[in-house]
Records
---
Amino acid sequence: PDFEDGCIRAIAERDMVDCIITRDERAFVRSRVKSFSASAFLDLFPVARDAGKLQRTGADEAVEYDDAGRD
């Protein structure tokens, strides 16, 4: 992992967070904290998608977020 991933891993482990959402899951293979891609997280926890009005449009398109009128 690069320096930034190492910092994220160390802080996540220190603070005992539930999971890390990342585009580079390989960087967290040895971490004690479970890591997910954004799409895997939304597939496993669909309530998060509904609660924040997240909308997945496709693999090649960005995830849109609308919270309190912001797009």
Note: The chain has three helices and two strands.
---
Amino acid sequence: GRSPTKVSSATIIAENSTESDVLATASFALGTKKAENIVENMNNVEGIFLDYENPRNITRTSGVKNLMKKD
């Protein structure tokens, strides 16, 4: 079959690598909005998604900013 191309990049931050991998892989098929909605409703999981048609369009879940280190 043909690979889905709704997301050009998906980074998932979770408590374990298996959960991160599964969610990142699913994000490519689901698309940015659906993937974001799923991740937003999960505890201790955050995501960063780049749109396929416009990779400069970056979507972050609400908790990503809390993970960024401030100097």
Note: Helices lie at 17-30, 32-40, 64-67.
---
Amino acid sequence: SYLTLKQVKEITQLSTSTIYRLIARGKFPKPFKLAERTSRWVGSEIEEFINQKIEKEKGSYLLGTGGKFDH
């Protein structure tokens, strides 16, 4: 499925500026252009981003680093 920015924000609970900052750092999936003024994200890529964050958080707690969210 393809997601709008609004949907990505709802799913990830990240702000627009945080999403684009993470994209610039190569830490968040890039959207693709559907039309000149329309971008979408691939739902499975957003799902994978979330799953990676969950696994990183689990590992952080196991290692005793407190599980800080990296952004």
Note: DSSP finds three helices and three strands in the chain.
